[in-house]
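Researcher: Please translate sequence to structure tokens.
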Amino acid sequence: MKVMVTGGAGYIGSHTVCQLTQEGHEVIVYDNLSKGHKKAVPEGIELVEGDLRDTLLLAEILRKQQIEAVVHFAADSLVGESMTQPSKYYHNNVVATLALLDTMRDCGVDKIVFSSTAAVYGEPDSSPICEDMPTRPTSVYGRTKLVIEGILADFSMAYGLKYVSLRYFNAAGALLGGQIGEDHSPESHLIPLLLQTALGKRASISIYGTDYNTKDGTCIRDYIHVTDLADAHVLALGHLAEGGQSRVYNLGSENGFSVREVIEQTKLITGIDFKVEEAERRAGDPGVLIASAAKIRSELGWQPVRSDLSAIISSAWQWHQSHPKGYGK
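Model: Translation complete:
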């Protein structure tokens, strides 16, 4: 298929572009590069620099390139920032996605794979989390993703749009071989922050909250290798190409690790005993998020084959060691 990947110069987007091209899809990357990196786009893949709200440019690309489906990553995703700048998140996530969907409809593109989040669940009543459990996001970021899921459902009902919404848990790791990896500015994800600390780029790492109702008082998260996530996007696209109906799926390893456990595993893999400090909780952070991925395993045959915590951290460590300044932006 001819596929446009919005946000394809970003972390998960670039890994998905790699997997899509390996599976024989023709890919165009559309990214405003506010957070993405040109160097993350594989050689030979066309990169169009543009904003989703530039609907004239967007329509030109969709028509000129005869795009058949969109994989949509482009969004702001910092939980803490979303709580202090909600307007930015509703504009950059919801309004921009609505512009994309309207332009797709005008251009006759009726398939989309959407990058959603486990943050739509908020503080769950129990774990593991299934797709039919209540959605009560505790952050503005999570609310924007849930609003978009509602828009997708409405567009599906009214206009025949077919979509797969993928609710990620904690993406981590890097492409095996170290060509691309995780480089955010500012960085907010635990594993790259730990590795930056191990490299001496940060004086210490902070644990935000040590009084959660968990085994060691710190947050528990389900970590999934970014390439396993990318595989799920390829499968979702194939599902839509074969005429499959709209679906919502969780993506996680179904295993939970506390912040302290991830810190200890990182120290073990790097061989570096870096400084750890304790801080107050961050607004909007649930205590425990662990996925049930039974639905996508059953319906699409997806398997997270790289998501052992040690393998995730080791692949990320390889990337950070070979790219101590990230992409050098």
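Researcher: Any highlights?
Model: The domain at 190-221+254-322 is CATH 3.90.25.10 (UDP-galactose 4-epimerase; domain 1).
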